[in-house]
Amino acid sequence: MIGNAYSSANIKKIRRDIDLSIIDEWLIGIDYSVRKDYTVVTLNARNTSTYEFQTVDAWRYHRGKQNQPMAEPELIKFI
User: Fold this and answer.
1) How far apart are CA 70 and CA 26, in angstroms?
2) Which superkingdom heads the taxonomic lineage of this protein's source (predicted)?
3) Neighbouring C-beta atoms of residue 40, cutoff 10 Å
């Protein structure tokens, strides 16, 4: 992994060939930053018998890089 886990270089390493036919469990992951860093929400899929795990979609927001960042209560409500 290079630097920030959510850097463009690391995001490009995520598999894009998602096989929805093997999914039997959906999970939502939230990495909330209390500093001015990335906040990330992911939609993940898992097969409970093979333990295969796939990230299906993700949203990331960096308050420190926004001209008018969302206030913390607004960001929490949005998530």
Assistant:
1) 28
2) Bacteria
3) 19
Q: Which alpha helices (H) appear in 1-79, and where do they start and end?
A: 8-11, 72-78
| Strand 53-62 versus strand 38-46 pairing type | antiparallel
Cα–Cα distance for residue pair 30/46, rounded to 1 Å: 16
Q: Which residues contact 28 (CB under 8 A, 6 or more apart)?
A: 41, 42, 43, 44
Cβ atoms of 39 and 77 closer than 8 Å = no
What is the value of pTM for the model shown? 0.68
Q: Look up residue 70 and give its DSSP letter.
A: P
What the block records as the tokens of 20 is 């929805």
Task: Locate 57 and state its tokens.
Answer: 């979609």
